[in-house]
TrEMBL record, chain A:
<dbReference type="GO" id="GO:0006367">
    <property type="term" value="P:transcription initiation at RNA polymerase II promoter"/>
</dbReference>
<comment type="similarity">
    <text>Belongs to the WD repeat TAF5 family.</text>
</comment>
<feature type="repeat" description="WD">
    <location>
        <begin position="583"/>
        <end position="614"/>
    </location>
</feature>
<dbReference type="GO" id="GO:0005669">
    <property type="term" value="C:transcription factor TFIID complex"/>
</dbReference>
<dbReference type="InterPro" id="IPR036322">
    <property type="entry name" value="WD40_repeat_dom_sf"/>
</dbReference>
<feature type="repeat" description="WD">
    <location>
        <begin position="625"/>
        <end position="666"/>
    </location>
</feature>
<feature type="domain" description="TFIID subunit TAF5 NTD2">
    <location>
        <begin position="211"/>
        <end position="339"/>
    </location>
</feature>
<feature type="repeat" description="WD">
    <location>
        <begin position="667"/>
        <end position="700"/>
    </location>
</feature>
<dbReference type="InterPro" id="IPR019775">
    <property type="entry name" value="WD40_repeat_CS"/>
</dbReference>
From TrEMBL, chain B:
<feature type="region of interest" description="Disordered">
    <location>
        <begin position="609"/>
        <end position="678"/>
    </location>
</feature>
<feature type="compositionally biased region" description="Low complexity">
    <location>
        <begin position="665"/>
        <end position="678"/>
    </location>
</feature>
<keyword id="KW-0804">Transcription</keyword>
<dbReference type="Pfam" id="PF02969">
    <property type="entry name" value="TAF"/>
</dbReference>
<comment type="function">
    <text>The TFIID basal transcription factor complex plays a major role in the initiation of RNA polymerase II (Pol II)-dependent transcription. TFIID recognizes and binds promoters with or without a TATA box via its subunit TBP, a TATA-box-binding protein, and promotes assembly of the pre-initiation complex (PIC). The TFIID complex consists of TBP and TBP-associated factors (TAFs), including TAF1, TAF2, TAF3, TAF4, TAF5, TAF6, TAF7, TAF8, TAF9, TAF10, TAF11, TAF12 and TAF13. The TFIID complex structure can be divided into 3 modules TFIID-A, TFIID-B, and TFIID-C.</text>
</comment>
<feature type="region of interest" description="Disordered">
    <location>
        <begin position="524"/>
        <end position="574"/>
    </location>
</feature>
<feature type="compositionally biased region" description="Polar residues">
    <location>
        <begin position="486"/>
        <end position="497"/>
    </location>
</feature>
<dbReference type="GO" id="GO:0003713">
    <property type="term" value="F:transcription coactivator activity"/>
</dbReference>
<dbReference type="GO" id="GO:0000124">
    <property type="term" value="C:SAGA complex"/>
</dbReference>
């Protein structure tokens, strides 16, 4: 034990020595001006503002307080049907308002509530963004301020954490964010247990007003009739209304305890819904009693977040006119209260265009959600002089092709010197300094690069498959180091196993007593500190107490991260093969974790619906990315380390800014939980795979879906671009590896102004043309894919006999 | 879209009776109906909730099956204590029973005998996880190695052969960008279910399947050369290896047309030259191709059948008909034809009826020489009892006369004599069992003579022998079934372990449950190209109280033998139980098999399960229940005679071709005798 402690301190010292300037607290965001949270940078600001962040991030401080999770937007009548797109500040102004309104209602202050509501609507119509909160405060009771501050805490970026370097206070350096694009804040931040739910009755209160339960079916079929009889061009758009209306009407019936009516309503109409909502419908169908609604996450998602629909102005007018004519208040109320209708001018969209984008738990992303600028370019590579040129030459000569390499190398050098216009400033995120070993590795990388195979449709890569035998269906995660020398596997039996796939065996550092005997001046001291007796091909890391769902090597191959069902992320040293740190904070299963491409930072995401950004030398997260409505299944760093992408069971992909914790992109279109993500090497594109077997391609800069690859018949578990981005490889539970022509897929993008402005995309049906190859395995799901530096594909999976 | 997929969601709830039962089990006697209903709703809802969470764990665990641990984790999410004690790695095998209008699912718990557990050797420690690399694809082409799935699954080959219209669908997808290197992508494409098949058949211009050129890679050409040379070469060891490769390698689909042509050409040439050995080698190749589980030969049957038929009915197959054992080749080839018929005869191609017609025609012809006559009869006889009954029996008298005229008449030529002799024994061998079934017991020499002419007396004695044989077996069958019908786990014995991974539970020895699976899996992964020899199983029952105290060995199932030359097959080496697993059925103490006949007075039944490394099927009495020793090449002296009842081939010493008799020796029980397998 003593030895272990010593080793740990050693490593800790090393970490200090690396001494990267830590990520600073988020800057005062563009929109984070008002509210109690403030944007001060001066240490713990103690106010209610970051109470939420603090408590939710307090991983080791026990369970988060239930109150944290009260985003509780009960828009009792503040119709969010803006005539024009709301201004930047509007969303959380309204949110503040709504919170106050809700509080008033809770406190039975009817008159005040009415007054405020009237006021609010006026305000909104006037679109006077900034003055609203003040008045709201004035109108509300003093007691509202506490609530107000809670709500603003979940508004974008106001929670100012202290500089983490001090590490003195327990307050977390965390930024709760995401609400800018999602006015209804995350359903929960720390916790999902039943008792932690936000005041359910408050959430549900909007369902109190009710019509005649027997009329619901009539209302619904009336609307159905209207929509089906409308013109073709409007029908597709208006059909989007079916699902949210169906859900909300059903929930209203259930809430008001009309069980039988609810049941028959469900049975009558559930068959009309689009097939991709099947999973949610299944949850709904089991929900038959008011008591069940407490603690049902799916239900809460519906209530707390507005379902977003994108409808053209014409179609919307048509609908409005119809509902007013029919005096169909029930439906009108639902439309006003529970739906967010994003109206655009122009041609109504076609059925196909709509189908491409819908499917997520809360409808489509709003248009303004994807408007902010994203620096998707790559960082400039540090210039490294290549001193080993002579050696190279010899090596090359031996292989018999002497002079080819030099100009190539110059190319690479010049490429890295150019500053990408889309790249973030070099020091936007503080990155660790390069060590000598990193430089050596970079040089190795360059050398390998010169030997890289140029891939293309006519030159497909070879695939080497690593099969895990005797895994008894227990393999849950795999990672391969960038230089393809090590493979780590996470297993359901809580172990992490590390294999060396090169002849070089894995050795650990000698014990402290033996280390002191070593001559520290000798040239091969790095070799001498290794203990030959421990050499083996496989090292097993014990420490977790649940299945290991995520594993990631650090870029320098000194560390390994693993995330597990037990709620922790562990950092392992690959020098000593011991656990260094257990990062607690998620409290619930952590589904994925990944190191930043520059090391030091890592991201994790789990069942608690948030992704967290950590630094290896901080035991608490630096950022908390909250906004997903269901589990965060996978997390990936952008190649420039400034952004993090998360894929979730709510069928959306979000891109988060590491700097300020904002959600800068929301991608909807998948019809099932997302299980794999990958960025293209140039940072411009993102590929995502889901349980629906489809791979979707996204343009990050424009925030658009740019491609759809159909072919897999089961969950796509792994995705990877080739080193130069020409080929996309996808591996799936259907036991196949497929290769896609990425160049062609991104080639003819429609990025004209109209498409960019409206986000209406028409995807070409060219999956079959893009598919370059399909390779069946022998009942081995493909869990991981990796391109070596020379563009050989390594695939991994566990043989699972049928 | 919504219309085409009418999802059926029904809200199933537990029956409220269950609540009552649970309440009663907890000591609450009276429970109101209303309460039950409420409880039912609540419990159903919670169960569904947990199941949905558990599914999440299954997905994240990258599995297709929900396990008990998933449920545990889901419970943990809800802060509920997990259920302890249900940690099955495998899917819980619920059994289903219904009766009296009630349906019941239950978990079958087997009664185990403690002494079993004590006496079984400890199970091996489960194998540790290990990593193995192979090439899934090399520059876009999937190599046909055992680690990869076969390039064209047998189902697809079959579909292509039998339903060309439908199979045009998977082929269609290849002609996209993959045309150049289509073979790698072809198999998986066929799997895609959502491919739009109908438009192809319904509308649009009808597209012909594009012609594809199957080029063999250099490796394949080398392989082909090596294999064909080894198959017809002089080195028997090499030949065995080559045949084994043909019988097991998964990647031969591309080379099938070449092999088929090689065989048919080879037969054509060698029949003319009367090269018996080569003909035998070629037939063994056919046999190996037939045995390959990844090949579907339908498309090549048109080349193979004439070749095989030639080897059956050709007038002369060897240079010295009086000495060489060409009869064995005819038998072997006849069996092959029967096998082909069984596999590929359909109502559309009528293979069997066409073959039958050919045989009959050549047999009926008066001028047919004895060799051809023998082949025709053998070919017909192998086709089954019905064929014997309808085609051979009516001609017995006529044939008997002809045989008698040769055997008893003036010596015309020695060759004719031998031929007639062979035909006679062949007829006796095949007809006796059929007659034994057809005719009522009292076997009267005269009646037989009246009906079958000169062959009558001989037939009669053979039938009597066959009857005795059948009775003996029937007795065994009865006794076996008696044992089996008892609700003992011995029932599961009768299943033959497949050479692939399988679920445990077939062997009832509890300790060994995990064992065969691992070993099979690992062996398969480690050295898959080697064939796992078909296991033969014996149930040996000794009842020492019976007068004779003989132990009978009953061969329950004899799979078709592989090429029995491999002694180091993976399965047998890894399974530690080369010694038989002894299952004691009665209550007496278990004893090792060598002392099986001990214990006077106490009734002991042993069921000896052994996996002998070779597939020699043996029937008939043996005096010792020890496992069959791995003597692969020597055919059992008792085996054939006991079952077939006759001095079958007694005079013929094995001809120079060493492989043929072996293959013959291991074959006959399948079709020749009534199978006692329950």
């Amino acid at each position: 034990m003593a030895a272990l402690a010593e080793e740990q301190t050693e490593v800790a010292v090393k970490l200090e020595a690396e001494g990267p300037p830590t990520l600073l607290p988020p800057q005062a965001g563009d929109a984070a001006g008002e509210g109690g949270g403030g944007t001060t940078n001066n240490g713990p600001n103690g106010g209610g503002g970051n109470a939420a962040a603090a408590s939710s991030a307090g991983g080791d401080g026990g369970t988060p307080k239930p109150s944290v999770a009260v985003p509780a937007v009960a828009p009792a009548g503040a119709a969010p049907v803006p005539a024009a797109a709301p201004e930047a500040g509007a969303p959380h102004d309204r949110q503040t308002l709504l919170a106050v309104l809700q509080f008033l209602r809770q406190s039975n202050l009817r008159e005040a509530e009415e007054a405020l509501r009237r006021e609010a609507r006026l305000l909104e119509e006037a679109a006077a963004g900034c003055s609203a909160p003040g008045e709201a405060d004035g109108a509300g009771a003093e007691a509202a301020s506490a609530l107000l501050s809670r709500v603003t805490a979940s508004a974008p970026g106001p929670a100012a954490p202290e500089p983490p370097g001090t590490g003195a206070s327990g307050a977390a350096a965390a930024a709760v964010s995401g609400s800018a694009t999602c006015p209804a804040a995350p359903g929960k931040v720390g916790s999902v247990a039943v008792e932690d739910q936000p005041d359910v009755s408050a959430v549900l209160s909007a369902y109190n007003q009710q019509g005649d339960p027997t009329m619901y079916e009539e209302y619904y079929s009336g609307l159905k009739h209207f929509i089906e009889c409308s013109l073709d061009c409007h029908r597709a758009e208006l059909s989007q209304l079916f699902y949210p209306l169906f859900v909300h009407m059903y929930l209203e019936l259930v809430y008001n305890q009309h069980e039988n009516e609810a049941k028959s309503f469900f049975e009558k109409f559930h068959g009309d819904q689009e097939c991709y909502y099947q999973d949610d419908l299944r949850v709904l169908s089991s929900l038959t009693k008011k008591e069940h609604m407490k603690g049902n996450e799916t239900m809460l998602d519906f209530r707390t977040s507005k379902f977003v629909l994108r409808i053209s102005r014409d179609s919307y007018q048509l609908l409005k006119r119809h509902l007013q004519e029919k005096q169909n208040n029930q439906i009108w109320n639902i439309v006003q209260e529970h739906l967010y209708i994003d109206i655009f001018d122009g041609m109504p969209r076609s059925k196909q265009q709509i189908d491409a984008m819908v499917g997520s738990l809360a409808g489509e992303a709003k248009r303004e959600a994807n408007k902010s600028k994203v620096f998707f370019g790559l960082l400039k590579e540090p210039e490294i002089e290549v001193p080993l040129d002579d050696e190279d030459e010899e090596g090359e000569n031996e292989e018999g092709k002497p002079k080819k390499k030099k100009p190539k190398k110059d190319n690479i050098g010049s490429k890295s010197k150019k500053q990408d216009p889309n790249a973030p400033p070099q020091n936007r995120i503080p990155l660790p300094e390069l060590k000598d070993s990193d430089k050596l590795d970079k040089i190795m990388n360059m050398k390998e690069t010169t030997k890289r195979v140029r891939l293309g449709p006519d030159c497909l890569p070879s695939i080497c498959f690593y099969t895990f035998l005797n895994a008894y269906q227990g393999l849950t995660a795999v990672d391969v180091t960038d230089d393809s020398s090590l493979i780590a596997g996470g297993f359901a039996d809580s172990t992490v196993r590390v294999w060396s796939v090169t002849p070089k065996k894995l050795r650990s550092v000698k014990q402290a007593a033996d280390l002191s005997l070593i001559d520290k001046e000798s040239d091969d001291v790095l070799e001498r500190i290794m203990d030959e007796k421990t050499a083996s091909e496989l090292k097993i890391l014990y420490g977790h107490s649940g299945p290991v769902y995520g594993a990631s090597f650090s870029p320098d191959r000194n560390y390994l991260l693993s995330s597990s069902e037990d709620g922790t992320v562990r950092l392992w040293s690959l020098q000593t093969f011991t656990c260094l740190v257990g990062y607690k904070g998620h409290n619930y299963p952590v589904w994925d974790t990944q190191f930043s491409p520059y090391g030091y930072y890592f991201v994790s995401g789990g069942h608690d619906r948030v992704a967290r950004l950590w630094a290896t030398d901080h035991y608490q997260p630096l950022r908390i990315f909250a906004g997903h409505l269901a589990d965060v299944n996978c997390t990936r760093f952008h190649p420039n380390s400034n952004y993090v992408a998360t894929g979730s069971a709510d069928r959306t992909v979000r891109l988060w800014d590491v700097l300020n914790g904002n959600c800068v992109r929301i991608f909807t279109g998948h019809k099932g939980p997302i299980h794999s993500l990958t960025f293209s090497p140039n940072g411009r594109f993102l590929a995502t795979g889901a349980t629906d077997g489809r791979v979707l391609l996204w343009d990050i800069g424009h925030g658009l879906m740019v491609g759809e690859l159909k072919g897999h018949t089961d969950t796509v578990c792994s995705l990877r671009f080739s080193r130069d981005g020409e080929i996309l490889a996808s591996g799936s539970m259907d036991n196949t590896v497929r290769l896609w022509d990425a160049v062609k897929a991104f080639e003819d993008l429609e990025t004209d102004d109209f498409t960019t402005a409206t986000g209406h995309i028409t995807l070409p049906e060219n999956s079959q043309e893009l598919l370059l190859g399909t390779y069946m395995t022998k009942s081995t799901p493909v869990v991981h894919l990796h391109f070596t530096r020379r563009n050989l594909v390594l695939a991994a999976g566990a043989y699972s006999p049928q | 879209m919504a219309e085409e997929k009418k999802l059926k969601l029904s809200n199933t709830v537990l029956p409220s009776e269950s609540m009552k039962v649970v309440a009663e089990s907890m000591g609450i006697a009276q429970i109101q109906e209303e309460t039950c209903q409420l409880l039912t709703d609540e419990v159903s809802y919670r169960i569904k909730e947990i199941a949905q969470d558990a599914l999440k764990f299954m997905h994240m665990g990258k599995r297709q099956k929900l396990t008990t641990s998933d449920i545990d984790y889901a419970l943990k999410l809800k802060n509920v204590e997990p259920l302890y004690g249900f940690h099955a790695q495998e899917f819980i095998p619920f059994r289903f029973a219904s009766g009296g209008g009630r349906e019941l699912y239950f978990y079958e718990e087997k009664e185990v005998d403690l002494s079993d557990i004590i006496n079984t050797p400890l199970p091996r420690v489960p194998l540790d996880v290990c990593l193995k690399a192979h090439w899934l694809s090399i520059e876009g082409c999937q190599p046909a190695i055992p680690e990869n799935p076969p390039p064209a699954p047998k189902e697809q080959q079959k579909a292509e052969a039998t339903e060309p219209l439908k199979s045009a669908k998977p082929g269609q997808e290849e002609d996209g960008p993959l045309k150049s290197k289509g073979q790698g992508a072809a198999p998986a494409d066929g799997k895609g279910k959502e491919k739009k098949a109908p438009p192809l058949l319904e509308g649009g211009p009808f597209r012909l399947k594009s012609r594809s050129i199957h080029e063999l890679s250099v490796e394949q050409q080398l392989y082909y050369k090596e294999i064909t040379e080894a198959c017809v070469g002089s080195c028997e060891a090499k030949r065995a290896e080559a045949l084994q490769s043909i019988a097991t390698d998964p990647g031969l689909y591309q080379m099938l047309p070449r092999f088929s042509t090689f065989i048919s050409e080879g037969v054509r040439v060698n029949v003319v030259q009367n090269n018996l050995a080569l003909l035998i080698y070629l037939m063994r190749m056919v046999k190996a191709l037939m045995d390959n589980p990844t090949l579907y030969l339908e498309k090549y049957v048109h080349e193979l059948i004439p070749a095989v038929m030639t080897c059956i009915v050709s007038r002369q197959l060897c240079l010295r008909p009086d000495v060489d054992n060409h009869w064995a080749l005819r038998d072997f080839a006849a069996r092959l034809v029967a096998q082909i018929c069984k596999h590929f005869s359909t109502t559309t191609n009528n293979i069997q009826s066409r073959i039958t017609k050919t045989f009959t025609k050549s047999w009926v012809d008066e001028k047919t020489p004895w060799t051809t006559r023998y082949g025709s009869i053998a070919g017909l006889a192998e086709l089954g009892h019905d064929v014997i009954k309808t085609l051979i029996l009516p001609r017995l008298q006529q044939e008997g006369e002809r045989i008698r005229s040769v055997l008893d008449g003036p010596v015309l030529s020695n060759i004719d004599r031998i031929g007639a002799d062979h035909v006679q024994s062949l007829l006796l061998k095949h007809c006796a069992p059929v007659l034994a079934k057809l005719r009522p017991p009292p076997d009267n020499q005269d009646a037989y003579r009246a009906e079958f002419g000169s062959l009558g007396p001989l037939l009669c004695s053979h039938v009597v022998k066959a009857r005795a044989q059948a009775a003996l077996q029937a007795q065994q069958v009865n006794r076996t079934t008696l044992t089996i019908t008892q609700p003992r786990p011995t029932l599961t014995l009768s299943q033959a372990p497949q050479p692939g991974p399988r679920t445990p539970g077939l062997l009832k020895v509890p300790g060994s449950i995990a064992l065969p699976v691992q070993t099979l899996v690992s062996a398969r992964a480690a050295a898959p190209p080697q064939p796992s020899p078909p296991p033969t199983k014996f149930i040996v029952m000794s009842s020492s109280s019976s007068a004779s105290s003989t132990q009978q060995v009953l061969s329950l199932s004899t799979s078709a033998p592989g090429s029995g030359s491999t002694t180091t097959s993976p399965v047998t080496t890894t399974v530690p139980s080369v010694q038989p697993i002894v299952k004691l059925v009665s209550t007496a103490t278990a004893a090792p098999p060598s002392t099986a006949s001990s214990g006077p007075g106490s009734v002991q039944k042993y069921i000896v399960v052994s996996l002998p490394p070779t597939g020699d099927g043996k029937g008939g009495p043996t005096s010792h229940p020890s496992p069959v020793p791995p003597q692969s090449s020597a055919p059992s002296p008792l085996g054939g005679s006991a079952l077939c009842g006759g001095k079958q081939e007694a005079g013929d010493s094995p001809p120079p071709a060493p492989g043929t008799p072996k293959a013959n020796g291991s074959q006959p029980p399948v079709s020749g005798s009534p199978q006692p397998a329950p």
